[in-house]
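Example complex used in Figure S2.
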Amino acid sequence: MQIPFLPLKSVTEKYSEEINAAVLRVVNSGWYLQGSENKSFEENFAKFIGTEYCIGCANGLDALFLILRAYKELDIMHDGDEVIVPANTYIATILAITENNLKPILVEPTFDNLEIDDSKIEERITPKTRAIMIVHLYGRCAYTEKIGALCKKYNLKLIEDNAQAHGCCFKDKRTGSLGDAAGHSFYPGKNLGALGDGGAVTTDNQQLAECIRALANYGSQKKYVFKYCGRNSRLDEIQAAVLDVKLRHLDEDNVCRQKIAKYYYENINNSKIVLPKRIADKNNVYHLFPVFCRERNNFQQYLKDSGIQTLIHYPIPPHKQECYKKWNNISLPITEKIHNQELSLPMSPCLTWEEAEYVVDCVNAF
Ligand SMILES: *Cc1c(COP(=O)(O)O)cnc(C)c1O
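Predicted assembly (366 residues):
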């Protein structure tokens, strides 16, 4: 059997009739940017997430960048201010901070749940701290009441990187509506994925929303009048139309992921393989299914030889990257352990039972 990590062709085929109709509608409309498709998707996504505003933009990195940039334009953040962020994240989270001349303060996660360790945040807060940026990594909710309380106590903005957790909840609220603003990515492989790049910001703050919308449109609120030195970051009409279709099916797709995860949790049984702490389904939309193994590279090769494609998320943590040379000597043992031992098993709404059974059998036989 050959099991691809994420067969995007099948993911699209699942809803191909609706997707094809949506794409054709845009093609034939003659209107390709900033039109009714964006408006409709923004309204529907804001409603889904539970915020007043949604602003479509070009990708997830831009969404995060624009939030911080807007806080700078609104005089809430300034060059050199600090943003607390988990050390184990995808590089984009950190780039959004450093591109704005802000300073990421890298905080370790717990190995247990892979999200930022909320007991290590307060000691890192200084007079320069302006925000805590949480990342709902792997589809797991990273928010805790303690983080919310710290933001209140120290008057910090709470920003969510929700690139990997569309549809995830904390209590009865969706991730993306838990803080002051959230950045979303619609990269094709994400739970809500476009057929190309896409992103969005969600927020309840009107002033922030207006500033972000202007910044994403060359800094303009009125045609040919430029209030800020903005950039061009747009979600195109074809992607918005596709996303509107896929948004309608997101919850059912996430349920498929949760069923596969349940099967993995209940049947993977190998003392060499450690699974992350299992949390309630409403708190995890299983963007990925990470497992941990001391012999990770051997384990990956063995699965490959068995026809199972896996990926590592991520092989090198941000502080060990060449682009951040100045942090290369910092020691972050938990982050490094995660990056050294992590392997993501196949996970998608299209994985069949037969495939999941085969994955489990191979993992158990390692
Ligand atoms: C994918 C991702 C991003 C960036 O999204 P792009 O659309 O690829 O720019 C940011 N943060 C996290 C955690 C991601 O997984």
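The chain has a mean pLDDT of 98. The longest helix spans residues 250-267.
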